[in-house]
Every structure is written in structure tokens, then in C-alpha cells.
Amino acid sequence: MAPTRAMALCLIVVALLINAAAASSYSNHTVGGDAVWFFNPTTNKTSADYNAWAANRTFNLGDYLIFNTNTNQTVIQTYNKTTYNNCSMDDSLDTDTFQYDGGSNEFGSAVVISVPLTIEGTQYYFSDADDGEQCLHGMAFEIKVNHGLGLPPSLNQPPPPPYVPPPESADGVQTPPITVVTSPPSGGMRTTANFCWLLLVLVFIAFLA
Ligand SMILES: *[C@@H]1O[C@H](CO)[C@@H](O)[C@H](O)[C@H]1NC(C)=O
Ligand SMILES: *[C@@H]1O[C@H](CO)[C@@H](O)[C@H](O)[C@H]1NC(C)=O
Ligand SMILES: *[C@@H]1O[C@H](CO)[C@@H](O)[C@H](O)[C@H]1NC(C)=O
Ligand SMILES: *[C@@H]1O[C@H](CO)[C@@H](O)[C@H](O)[C@H]1NC(C)=O
Ligand SMILES: *[C@@H]1O[C@H](CO)[C@@H](O)[C@H](O)[C@H]1NC(C)=O
Ligand SMILES: *[C@@H]1O[C@H](CO)[C@@H](O)[C@H](O)[C@H]1NC(C)=O
User: Fold this and answer.
1) Domain for residue 79, yes or no?
2) Do residues 57 and 92 lie in contact, with contact meaning Cβ atoms separated by under 8 Å?
3) Do residues 142 and 151 lie in contact, with contact meaning Cβ atoms separated by under 8 Å?
4) Which residue, judged by its Cα, is nearest atom 11 of ligand 1?
5) Ligand closest to CA 91
6) In this predicted model, what pLDDT tens digit does every residue of 46-84 receive, in sequence order?
7) Is the CB of 53 under 6 A from ligand 3?
8) According to the lineage, what is the superkingdom (predicted)?
9) pTM reported for the whole predicted model
10) Which strand (E) or helix (H) includes residue 16?
């Protein structure tokens, strides 16, 4: 790699770091704001326009949706638009639709349900209570989750890698050794690397200040 290309790469890395830091930190979004997650079965009205609420915010990986509600409403998360439009979990797949349980089975008990945003892209929420009537009357919204800072370590627990059987050694077939060609170190490269480190340290100090 020529020193100028290394320099360009260095500047790109620094720019990306600045950008990531500008995405600040993780947020908790109280669904509906002060109006919270609530449906009035007498008037058939939701306490907030949830799609308007969602349209006004930015959601990132690692953020939480906080549903302040009571057990008369449910919290269903789905990645499947068919399930969302249907207002029902009845025919949904276990792999794309989840119900978040408030832990109480009595009507009207106050609950706070926290849902971490762990997958990028579009996802949907609704309450399927009252046989879907709540959802049909607006207890439903769509959000788009951006990458932001990416998942924090606390939420980033990837599944273990799949088992890969060791390669079978067919008689007489030998894989050739892999030759790694390394270019000789050059003075230009080293100067660029030093400069890059200096720049990174300066940016880091600037953010600490
Ligand atoms: C956001 O909510 C989660 C889950 O309830 C909680 O662990 C975390 O402390 C909250 N973060 C902030 C900044 O309030
Ligand atoms: C609320 O919706 C239910 C079911 O659709 C209906 O039977 C009832 O009359 C509605 N009530 C009002 C106040 O609109
Ligand atoms: C969206 O945000 C703007 C500016 O922050 C605010 O004036 C407006 O009321 C918000 N709309 C909703 C639906 O929350
Ligand atoms: C959901 O789908 C089922 C059949 O899969 C249908 O019987 C039901 O009416 C649908 N509900 C809504 C609200 O569209
Ligand atoms: C969405 O869910 C329905 C069942 O409700 C299923 O038939 C369909 O394949 C799902 N769509 C996707 C894209 O997985
Ligand atoms: C919850 O639903 C039950 C049964 O429909 C009703 O009696 C009760 O008043 C509701 N409570 C609240 C807080 O909405």
C-alpha cells in the first residue's frame, strides 16, 4: 500500500470515529411520551397517535422502547408486516413475532415493559388485546431501527458459531501450503502509521475534553 493510500485510509478511519461519536449514546424511548401506551375501550381511542410519535424520533440499535401501560394492553413485537396488518398473533411465526409479558395476569395492573432494539431495519408493535380491536383502532406503530453505535456488549450475545466438521483427508490428496506474500516494510508506511496514531490520540483527547 502506497503511503498516500494509507494516509487516505487513516483519514477515513478518523472521520468514521468522529461520526460514530457524534451518534452520541443509547436512548430510552417512552412510547407515546407522557400519554404512554393506553387504550380507552369506552371511546375506542388511543391516548396518543403512536405512528406520529414514532415518526418524530430516531431509533438506534441498543435503544429501548419503554411501554408504560397496564395489563389491559399487550405489547407484541413483529418483523412481519402480514402479522402487523392482521392485528393478531394467531397465525404468526415463532421466529418473527414476540409477546412481551408484563408478568401479571390480572386486568388493569400497572406494568412497565422494556423492549431492547437488537435488529436493524423495520419492525412493528401492536396490542392484540380485545381480539385485535385495540390494534384496529390505532394501538399499533412502525419504527425503523438504524445502526447508530451498534449493539452494546450487554445486548450483543451472538449465537455460538455452527459446528463445522473437520475436513476429511482423502488419501493422496494434499492441500498445497498457503504462501503469504508480505511486502517489505517501507519508511513511508511507518511515517504514515505514526501520523495516524498521533491523529487518533488527538481526536480521542478532543472527545475527552
Ligand atoms: C433504559 O432502559 C433499560 C431497560 O429498562 C435500563 O436497563 C437502562 O438503565 C435505561 N437507560 C437509561 C439511560 O435510562
Ligand atoms: C368501539 O368499537 C366496538 C367494536 O368495534 C364497537 O362495538 C363500539 O360501538 C365502539 N364504541 C364507540 C364509542 O365507538
Ligand atoms: C415532532 O417534533 C417537532 C419538533 O421537535 C414538534 O414540534 C412536534 O410537535 C412533534 N410532533 C409530534 C407528533 O410529536
Ligand atoms: C387475521 O387472519 C385471520 C386468518 O389468517 C383472519 O381470520 C382474520 O380475520 C385476520 N384478522 C384481521 C384483523 O385482519
Ligand atoms: C409472515 O407471517 C405469515 C404467517 O402469519 C407467514 O405465512 C409469512 O411467510 C411470514 N412472512 C415472512 C416474510 O416471513
Ligand atoms: C381493564 O379491563 C377490565 C376488564 O375489561 C376493566 O374492568 C378495567 O376497568 C380495566 N382497567 C383499566 C385500568 O383500564
Assistant:
1) yes
2) no
3) no
4) 28
5) 5
6) 999 999 999 999 999 999 999 999 999 999 999 999 999
7) yes
8) Eukaryota
9) 0.72
10) helix 3-22
